Structures are given as structure tokens and as C-alpha cells.
Amino acid sequence: MRNVVNDYFDVAVGVVRKAGRFITQYGSGCEEFEVKSCDIDFVTKVDKMVENFIIHSISKQYPSHKFIGEESVAGGVKVNLTDDPTWVIDPVDGTMNFVHGFPFSCISLALLISKEPVLGIIYNPLMDKLYSAKEGQGACLNGEPIHTSKVKELRHALVAFETGTSRDEEKVKVVFENFKTMVGQAHGIRALGSAALNMAMVAEGRADANFEFGIHIWDIAAGCLIVKEAGGVCIDPSGGPINLLSRRMLCAGREELANELSKKLTQYYPDHD
Length: 273
Fold this sequence. Notes:
Blueprint: H1 2-24, E1 34-35, E2 42-43, H2 45-61, E3 66-69, H3 70-74, E4 86-93, H4 95-100, E5 106-113, E6 116-124, E7 129-134, E8 139-141, E9 144-145, E10 158-161, H5 169-185, E11 188-190, H6 195-204, E12 209-213, H7 217-229, E13 233-235, E14 248-252, H8 255-264
Helix pairs in contact: 1-2, 6-7
């Protein structure tokens, strides 16, 4: 199995690096976009180009594999996660950043087999940073090993979290409650505007924890594996095992920090994918 995953990984890295060229062409921003669910939820032609390129390129190599892509789902395709090899794609995570030319956007790509991630790639082509992991083989940044931090207590932790792309009144209330909690109890807070890159920061030990409500499987599938392979944990924000389809995620460099954070968060339960 390891050799097969290594082969999948080599193909995926090549495809993702090529797909990144679509993003770098718009490094100063992309003024043309469409609104999806609300006025802060965007899609650009580059999102669609990247996703189509990845699906087409991998399908040529592995025609029996399945795909779950953010823009395909937005276009009406149902999320159908089976035990079959399934590639999960966020073509431009951090579209708001991309539109504004803020250089924190990435491609997030994971391969799931039997509904579990076996490889994950998060690539920010604007900074040429490629985070990656293969199950049981550790995590890397541009080929060099990375590890999570050793911070175990919230009062010493730098926590990444986002306001999200929803104007839903209940969701916004929860965001403000958790912001207040983090300001009062964490060492510091950060928001990169990309769920995948926030998770990459945890994997690299630059941030100590990250949580988010309302994200999707394509935002977190790669990041969950990369964090775990770097020595961290990914759990449900209320504690317990993570469900990649629940639209809820908490990750941390250490289990103790994850457990403490889960007890202090105001919870929010979006509709499942």
C-alpha cells in the first residue's frame, strides 16, 4: 500500500504544482468573481480552471478514481464519499484573499481511501510553499520535515480561527463569543483567511491550534492528515473523533491543548455536507 500511495503522491504533486500556475498569473488580485451563498462567498474563473485541470489530469492517470471538488459541488454535484479512492479538492482556498491580492491562497488536495486521508497536499504557489503528508510517513514543507509545537495550555497558545463566509446571525454570534474567549484566554489569535493554511501553520508549529465551524471536507481533508503526521491532533470541536463531513474541526499541536480548547468553545452545528 505504501508504494501505491507514494506513486499517487508523486503524480499529485506534479499536478498541483502545474495547477498553481493559474493562481500565480493573478498574484496581484482577481477582479472578476461571482457571488455564491452570500456577498462574502466568492468563486472566480481560476477556481474552476484549477479544479477542472486537477480532475482531468488525475483522471488520465487513474480513471477509476472518484472526486469531490468544491466548485463541482457548488454546481450541483452531490457529496458522495465512499470507500473508493476519492480525491478531495479545494482549488483556491482563501478566495477572498485571492480576489484582493493578499498572498495567502492555496490549493488543497487530499486522497481518501476507505474514507480516510492517505495523502494530503496544501500548496501556496504565491509563496511556493508546499505542505504535504503521506499516511505513516510524516509531514513536510517543501520536502523538509515539519513538526507541531509543544504548547499544551491555551494561555500559552497562538490560536488561528476565522470569521467564515456566512452572514448567518447565529453563526456570527458564535464567532463573536469565541473571539471574546480567545482574546481573554489565549496568548494570541491570528486569521490567515484560509482554513487549509491555518492548519498548515499548526502542522509547522507556527500556530498552536486552529478551529472552525462551517468549513467543508475540501477545506480540511489534506490539513487533517498533515497536522496528524506532524505530531498533532484533529478532533471535533466539542471533543471526540472528527467527522470530515460534519463541517466542524479543531486541530492542535498537542492533545492537551485540543482538549482544553474544546471545553471553552461556544459550539455551532452547521448542516452536514
